[in-house]
Amino acid sequence: MALALAPAMQAQEWQSWFGDGLGDAKVVSGQAKYEVKDGVLIGTTTEGSPNSFLIKGPFKDFELEFEVQVDDALNSGVQVRSHLAKEGDAAPEGSKNGKPLPAGRLYGPQCEIAVNGTAGNFYDEARRGTWWSLLTNTESVRTDEAKAAFKRGQWNAYRIVVKGDHYQSFVNGVKTADFKQGGDPEGYIGFQVHGIKKGTGPYTVKWRKVRLRTL
Question: What are the boundaries of each domain within the chain?
Fold first, then answer.
């Protein structure tokens, strides 16, 4: 007879997000429009707005899954373990320009959503301004298969696992990032709508089947 797992060993229940609305999520950093229609979270650009994020959290260790579709002209991403700058904060540790961020600006690791071959890689948004694969010497994960995993004009399945100092991402079942960094033990998850150039857009990014479980 199989033994029941102790409560501490049992996997946590999946939480489904955005099935019928935004819930307790809030928009920070910009003025992009977020809405839920038929179980799909839709982010729409607003001309003149900086990068916007719909955030939930904070979270420590978790597994996050979703499907995403993005207009070819739009760059997007999902922040993990990210932070909101507050009035009077010093520049974030590792900041490339050494300057404090505006109050309310979200910064930290972002899993990329884009059609240009960078999908699934992690970018250090508004802080170091470069890829975590370069910072952690894990560019070997960025194979040709990884760079081609994201499909234009289609729904793409993402899986992001963050546990301790270990970050992993998978796009359509292909590993697209695998690195360790201990500088962000807890933070927000944020769904990004990127700022756009004047006279362009509007563009959209859509997420569906979003679910998370803590580890």
Answer: 26-214
